[in-house]
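REQUEST ID: PR-0412
SUBMITTED BY: lab tech R.K.
PRIORITY: routine
TASK: structure prediction, single protein chain
INPUT:
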Amino acid sequence: DPEDIKKAIHPATKMIVLTHASNVTGTILPVEAVGAIIREKGDILFCVDAAQTAGALPIDVQKMKIDLLAFTGHKSLYGPQGTGGLYIRKGLEKGIAPLMMGGTGSRSEFEAQPDFMSDKYESGTPNTIGFAGLGAGVTYLAEQTIDGIRAKEEQLTRRFLERLEAFKDQVTVYGLNDAARQTAVISFNVKNISPSDAAMFFEEKFGILCRPGLHCAPAAHRTIGTFPQGTVRFSFGFFNTSRDMDRAAKAVMALIHR
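STATUS: complete
OUTPUT:
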């Protein structure tokens, strides 16, 4: 609820950081509504973590009133690991110091770090090969369009959720359980089976790789009541098919009846 953000703001608040979508349940958060609340305050920065959504959901930093947007390249932008970026709203660079300095390859006649974008924040040798791969991924993304990718992933998510409904007495699904309001990430547990045992079964019997445990987000799991055991997380993408969803559901059924 965006109103919870409004209530949490106090005179000492300098920045609000919000994930665009949960990496545990896939739940999409109301970034635009929160951005409007923050902008009303005038002097609070809004930083959004788009690691789960860049390339998977439409993002408009101006419409959403985002000041800082962090994203990775190796997920829905189809780039290699070790790539990513940080959008900084024009003007903010004057008040944000770089984490590292030196070796920018520009203004070499000065000992000081360049104070202009983007050199101010790009020290050292850039990951040229990685960025070439990221560029290829983004080019493919542009050809398919984000709306097209979102429609496909939403359809796959809805199909798998519908298949899981048949096992609702044995399978607990966490989150909104609504394909239109989440990314293509589904967390669930099978009754009396640990997430790690379930993941091993899916890999050994069906060749399905998934992520069991706490997903680097213990606080999120405390919120949904799955700490410390965690959940089984299936993550679908544009290259999956409806047949994959049916096979994944078949694997869950086999685990229940093993």
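NOTES: The CA atoms of residues 2 and 34 lie 6 Å apart.
REVIEWED BY: pending
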